[in-house]
Write the structure tokens for this entry.
Amino acid sequence: MAFDAAAGCDDALRRLLARYVVLARGDAGCRNIDLVASATRPDRYLVIEKWQTPEAQRRHFDSPAMVELAEACRGLLSSPPQIDLHEPISAHDLH
């Protein structure tokens, strides 16, 4: 998920996303969640999530934590968050 902070909201958004990441790491089926800041786009943050199964990921996306995050982002973003799902590629798949 990519989040672009509205002007003057960088610190508030960063704190909100950091809290979300810490809480979501405890969800069933969570393999890892990281928060990273863009080195090339000021005020852009990515939340990178890995889940054991697509079902675990769906449960998380429907969870109160996601609803709370969405509501708390109001007024902090310059545009809607960009949510994209990716499939891992193993080096073994690249023959």
Q: What stands out?
A: The CA atoms of residues 24 and 65 lie 7 Å apart. The first strand starts at residue 2 and ends at 4. The chain has one domain: 2-81. The helical segments are 10-24, 54-61, 64-72.
